[in-house]
Amino acid sequence: MTASAEAQRLLPRPLLITLTVLLCAMVLTPILYIVLASLNTDVGVAGGEFWPSTFSGESYTQIWTTAALSTGIVNSLIVCGLTAVASALLGTTTAYVLVRYAFVGRLTILRGLVGLQSIPGTLMLLPVFVLFSSAGNYLGLTVIGTRWGLFVAYLTFALPFSTWVMVTYLRAMPRELEEAARTEGASTLVILRRIVFPLSLPAIVVSGIFAFLLGWNDVLFASVLTRPETQTAAVALQIFGSTQEGGALPVYSQMMAASLICAAPVVLLYLAFQRYLVGGLTAGGVK
C-alpha cells in the first residue's frame, strides 16, 4: 500500500485535504507577509498593512547603504562555502576509514561522534574563544577577527555531523566494487576518487549543505569571533535589526528585504541540489 493510500485510509479525503491546506497556509502565510512587506513602504508596514497600498522596490536598493549586507554576504559565502567543502571531503575520508578498517578505538570514535552532537554550542563559546586567544598569543597568529578562525570554529562543529552522515551511508555501500578495484591494483586513494566519492555524492551533498547552513545561520560564534570587516550576513542582519528598533520609525520594509536577500543563497542552494538531497536522505541508510 502506498503512502497516499495509507493516509487516505486513516483519514477521510475531505479531512485530509483540509489539513493539507491548513498546514500549507501555516507555512506560506509568514513567507507571503515577508515578501509583501518588503515590497511595501516603511510607513505602510508600520501602519499594519498586509497588502501594500503601493508596491515599491526601494527597500531592495536602500538596504545596501543602510546595512553592511554586501560585506556580510561575501564573508558568509567564503567561510560557509569552505566549511561545507572541507567538512564533506574530510568527513567522507574519515568515515571510509571508520567503516572499512578495524583498529583499536574505532568504536570509541564512533560513539564520540554521536556524543558530540548532544553538546550545545553555547557551552563551547567560551572555551573556543579562550583557545583561539591563547593560540594567538603563543603562536603569534591572529585568530580572532579573521575568516579562517571562524572557518576553524565552524569546521569543528560540522565535521562530526558530516562524518556520521557518511558513516551511515558507507555502511550500506557494497564492498564488491572496492574489492574488484583492489584486485586490479587500485590504491586506496584511487578507490576513494573513482568509486567512493562518485557513489556517495548524494550523502556528500547532504553533509556539505548542512555544514553550510550551520555557518550561515550562526550568530553567536560569528558575533564573538569576527570584526566589522569580517562579520557574516547573519551578524549584519542582527545588528541592523537591533539598531533600527529604537528609531522613531522602524524600517520594517528594509528589514524584510534584508531577510529575503540573506535567505536567497540558501534557497538557491536547495534548488540546485534538490535531487541529491532527496537521494542522500533516503538512500544508503541515511534516514
Question: Would you mind describing this structure in some detail?
Answer:
It is a single chain. By secondary structure, this protein is an all-alpha fold. The protein is built from 15 helices and no strands. The protein is globular, with a radius of gyration of 23 Å. The model has no long low-confidence stretch (mean pLDDT 83).
Question: Structural class per helix/strand content?
Answer: mainly alpha
Order of helices and strands: HHHHHHHHHHHHHHH
- Mind telling me the C-alpha Rg? 23 Å
Strand content: under 5%
Q: State mean pLDDT (0 to 100 scale).
A: 83
Assembly annotation: single chain
Instruction: Note the total helix count.
Output: 15
Extended strand count? 0
**Helix content bin:** over 70%
List the helices and strands and how they pair.
Blueprint: H1 3-10, H2 13-38, H3 42-46, H4 58-66, H5 69-100, H6 106-116, H7 121-139, H8 147-171, H9 176-183, H10 188-199, H11 201-216, H12 220-225, H13 233-244, H14 252-272, H15 274-282
Key terms for this structure?
15 helices; globular; 287 residues; mainly alpha
Short description:
With 287 residues, this protein is an all-alpha fold.
